[in-house]
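Q: Prostate-associated microseminoprotein, please. Structure only.
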Amino acid sequence: MDPMARHDTLMFFMACLVWTTCSAAPTQCHFNSQALCEYDGKQYSMGESWMEQGCVQCTCLHPVGVGCCETVHRPVDFPPWCEVRVESLTCQVMLVMTSDPRLPCIPGEDNNVDPRHGALNMKLEG
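A: Structure for Prostate-associated microseminoprotein:
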């Protein structure tokens, strides 16, 4: 690959990193100049992408390396009695109760009391 094409490829990947990092929901990206364009026994060529385990999409930037970014946008502002769960097959994000992950956690005015204190449906007087 000529130096100009290599430079253009790097600039494209860096622009993707900036766009992803500056979007409303944070994601993480990384670039590995030593990585090969291979995953799960399959070879990829320049510009081809694949989905790795953990909802990470990678793109072959041969011969300069491989760039990968999370595809999941995790919520960052939720009550401490909630936790984020990511379904690994569908990459769907769910906010669930820490005490019982089978139950959804819906933060808001009507659900602003920590359920560990036994006051889930009780309104605070004040």
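A: Brief note, in case it's useful. Strands lie at 29-32, 38-39, 42-43, 49-52, 56-60, 66-70, 82-87, 92-97.
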